[in-house]
Amino acid sequence: MLKNLLTVVLPLMLPTLIYMAYAMFGRRKTAALEGAPASWWTGAPWTWLVTGGVVLAAAVLVTVALTGGFDTSGTYHPARLIDGRVIEGETTPSAPDPASPAVPRP
Fold this sequence. Notes:
The chain crosses the membrane at residues 6-25, 46-70. By secondary structure, this protein is mostly helical. The protein has a domain at 1-20 and 44-68. It contains two helices and four strands. A hairpin with a 2-residue loop joins β2 and β3 (85-87). α1 packs antiparallel against α2 (46-67). The chain starts with a helix and ends in a 14-residue tail after the last strand.
């Protein structure tokens, strides 16, 4: 859940949150000088905010896909249901090949 929040939701929302903070700060300053300002979302550049969010989310997802992952030399055991409980999938190290002699490490 936290991973989805940090890799998808936060990058999508970050440009809008930054703009919202900027607009509210600017509107507060304007309200002190002139009067009651309009809402922050009336003049928001929605196309740029949505595009920025999608680009940021895509960059995060590509980065996670390229840098994350598991060791591929092990054996994967898929998730299974045992006595009504879901046992998560796991990767265990591969057993050494019995035909090849063990090489001593220095």
